[in-house]
Predict the structure.
Amino acid sequence: MEKSINNSTNFELFINKHFKISIAFFALGLFFGIIYSLNLLGLVIDSQTLNPVNMRAIHISLMLYGFVPLMLSYLPFLLINKEVGSSREGIRYLNLYTIIWYIFLVFMVVSLLLGKNRGLAFYDFAYELNFLLAFAGLFYILALYKFIKLYTVLPLWIKVCLRVVTIAPFTLLILMNPTIGQVESTVSGPHGDNTLGMSLALIPIYYLIIKLLNEGEFKARWNILWIIPTVFYFGSVLYRIFIGHLSYNQEWFLQYLTLLYVPLLYRWYKDSNISDIAKKALLVSILAFLFVDIEGNIIFIPQIRWVFHRNDLIIAHAHVAMGIGVFFMVISMFINHIKELHKDIFLKIYLVGIIGIFTALSISGFTQAGFNSIPTHTLWIFRTLFGLVAFGFIFAFIKLQTSYSKLGFYNLIGVLSDGLGGVFLILLASFLYPILGFSFSGVYEYVVFTFVSMTGIIHYLALKNETYQMILTKLSVIIRVFASSMFFALYSSGKLGMEALMICLFDLTFVFIYLIFFYEKETTCKD
């Protein structure tokens, strides 16, 4: 009994930690989206990294492959934990899966930031990074196996889930493959089968969320409404692989099969018995999904599609789909686990922001189609302002510490100067260096800036872990001594200019502050 309680506590701690880490990636995606929106208004900085193409690619990629899919993948474990508890070993594998996903996101963001994008609508990052996701998927499978051992009799949904996740890593590598995959073969077409596939993927997730949140056993009805689209979708995948491209009429038919989900989700929601706060979040998600489903089918009518396809109305459509529909799907999943989600005002702020973005972009779409004369530039200003409003939701998760020890304050300055300073240099050095008269090759400098940021990370770890604060601070000092000596050597030998001397003096300043104000006191106390 005690072991079961400990595992449950560990699971709750695990969920809280990774929800908050992963939502930071969501906030980062919003941040780059705001920068891209500013780019569209003409506020473009001549930087290798902050150009509009990179900003758009990172924004879309983080929205599609960051917080939302990672947290959705926790759904089976949340449900198993509710039904039979959690597995300590399973949590370990789930933790490894999550960390590898974070590594994928870091690789994705950095490679896109330095210009490695493929110009695809929803899949800009390099194909090779899918192997990181597939590797993470292996630990996901191990975690699921450990969790389901807690059942004496496996439920049907577990059996289905197990089969899906077992083939998922291999399916990912096939579907995303540039030669035989679905992504590149449907870039120019109406891609109705992809729309059906994406909608189909959400239906079992809605079912499991309702099952998770439902008080008592939930029995799904009207299942024929998801069986029919499923059969046709897999038929379309096989057709593309073995026969060739689908005709427009064939894709149109597949697109319209998504309308079967409207009565299905209505029936499931009405049959559910869920607490008010969770049911509100779920309702927002379902309404957004149904709106996107119905609007998407209207836009797919040929006479309308050729007017609106690829203009701001479609972008607005995507904001509702991901920014409201899928985001609130995740919120409903975790609302009983994350206390910050009970702060209703922050979710309302976010919702107002996204709806504002949607409205501005929708009107802009009608402007671009020639139905009104409101300047697109003005609407993009509103889009940017509402983006800032949506970004405000992240403050629900930020807790500012107001008092620090002297050593803690030293580490805080290290976080701000090296951690944030390194990121600042990665984003803006190619713009600032020429202005300051420094040479900039755009190659080795990014390695140096990354190294600077990692020194800031060490200061952050020292700040957050009092037990190891002294040893981590010493580590940062040792790094600064060797780094400053190397930069001085490069300056004195004429291989680098004044910037190397400035970095040397900057690091030495931190070293001397530590030695004068902290090192001697620590030694005296030990004596």
